[in-house]
Each structure stands twice: as C-alpha cells, then as structure tokens.
C-alpha cells in the first residue's frame, strides 16, 4: 500500500470518531493560528502606523506600483469591496494615491506616494522581528509558507470539485 493509498483509505470507526475531536480539526488550528499570528504582528505594525491588512496592501504595492484595484484584489485574494475602504484609509494617511488608470477610465490605479515608498525602509525589519517573536528560523518560515500555499491551492481547486466523502483526511 502506498502512502497515498493509506491516506485515502476508509478510516476505522474509532478513527472517524476521533476525527471529530476539536484538536484534530484543521480549520480550528488554522483559525487560531491566523488570529494569533495577526495579533503578534499588531504591536510591530503599530510602529509603522498600519494594520495587518493595510500592511499586506503595502507589501503588494512595494512589489509593484502602480497596480489596478482589480490586480490588488486578485493578488491579495480579497474582494474589491473589502479592499476599497482600506485603500481610502491608506490614501488619507498619505501612503498611496488612487487615480483613473491611463487608457482605461473604468479602472482605478493605486500608486505609492513618496511617504508610502519611504515606509518600506522601516518595514524591512518586520520579517526579522516576527521570526524572532515567533521563535522561527527563515527556513521554517519558508517551509510553513510552502505548506500554506499548497493548502490554499488544494482548497481553491477543491471549491471547483466534488465535496469530499467519507474516509478522507481527518479534520480536513
């Protein structure tokens, strides 16, 4: 029996009962991890004057600016309606500007201001500070990121497929 066969084989009745334990739920572990990690970022990002979601927007813009709202939405996996109020707050803070995209009056282009670009220099310490706060080495962070990306990809492709049936992985 291969590792894949063992992972997809129907589970015993006892294993299926244990699958319902809260501690075995992937959704619970991810939810708690997400809240906890974002909470750990809070004091670090307060020094920059931004929230965690705003930090994510800035990260995307530090990679490429200008970008359309649609491109930011796709990159951050956020709905434009969720993103728009955040962009407005960042604009009010003087970190970015929003203008009609050249050649496409229907698209809104988001661009960092000089203040937004300058904030990047201060943000360079955030990843190292967070690794230290969480007691993680760079290689561990990279592996966690790879695992999370595989999980995100699997969940997104699963949304398009049939629902999982009995005997699938525990807590998934």
TrEMBL record:
Compartment(s) of residence: Cytoplasm
A molecular function (GO) term: DNA-binding transcription factor activity
HTH marR-type domain segment(s): 23-153
Cross-referenced InterPro entries: HTH_MarR-typ (IPR000835), MarR/SlyA-like (IPR039422), WH-like_DNA-bd_sf (IPR036388), WH_DNA-bd_sf (IPR036390)
One GO biological process term: response to stress
Primary location class: cytoplasm
SMART domains assigned to the protein according to its UniProt record, in alphabetical order: HTH_MARR
GO cellular component: a single term: cytoplasm
UniProt xrefs under Gene3D superfamilies: Winged helix-like DNA-binding domain superfamily/Winged helix DNA-binding domain
PANTHER family, sorted: ORGANIC HYDROPEROXIDE RESISTANCE TRANSCRIPTIONAL REGULATOR, TRANSCRIPTIONAL REGULATOR, MARR FAMILY
Name of the molecule in the record: Organic hydroperoxide resistance transcriptional regulator
Source species of the chain: Arthrobacter saudimassiliensis
Gene (UniProt): ohrR
């Amino acid at each position: 029996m291969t590792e894949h066969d063992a992972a997809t084989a129907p589970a015993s009745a006892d294993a299926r009962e244990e699958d319902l334990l809260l501690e075995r739920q992937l959704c619970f572990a991810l939810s708690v991890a997400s809240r906890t990690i974002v909470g750990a970022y809070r004091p670090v990002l307060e020094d920059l004057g931004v929230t965690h979601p705003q930090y994510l927007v800035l990260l995307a813009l530090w990679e490429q600016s200008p970008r359309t709202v649609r491109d930011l939405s796709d990159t951050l996996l956020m709905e434009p309606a969720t993103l728009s109020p955040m962009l407005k707050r960042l604009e009010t803070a003087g970190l970015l500007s929003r203008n009609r995209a050249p050649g496409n009056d229907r698209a809104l282009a988001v661009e960092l201001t000089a203040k937004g670009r300058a904030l990047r220099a201060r943000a360079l310490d955030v990843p190292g500070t967070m690794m230290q706060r969480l007691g993680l080495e760079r290689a561990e962070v990279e592996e966690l990121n790879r695992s999370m990306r595989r999980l995100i990809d699997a969940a997104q492709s699963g949304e398009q497929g049939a629902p999982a049936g009995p005997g699938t992985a525990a807590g998934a």
